[in-house]
Write a structure and sequence with these properties.
By secondary structure, this protein is mainly alpha-helical. The protein has two domains: 77 residues, no CATH class; 35 residues. The protein is built from six helices and no strands. α1 packs across α2. The protein is globular, with a radius of gyration of 18 Å. It starts with 9 loop residues before the first helix and ends in a 5-residue tail after the last helix.
Amino acid sequence: MLKARNIFHPVAYLQKIGFSSSTAVNYMNNRLDGVKWKHLQIFCIALNCTPNDLFTWYGEGGTVAENHELLTLKRNPVESLQDKLLTLPPHKLEEIRKLIESADEDSKTPAAK
């Protein structure tokens, strides 16, 4: 998620949002046995995401039914959006700009009750 948000100095970023330097280093080096609920909340608020956006399931521990919810956590590695945009032709960039503008307008519209 940090890469998807173009955060290039993740330890510094984690410190900026409230983590101690040792905790930030441990998160970035996968040296923790779990994630505290409080930390999960900090991540989600700072990155504007849900807990499911932070986790990836690699299929360890056996197989699951093809409609199992764990499969929603299987993802391809995140490619830097900025890097991807540099390779697109201008007409595709225009399509993306329109899509972003549309999504931005949708997020500003109050949900119908």
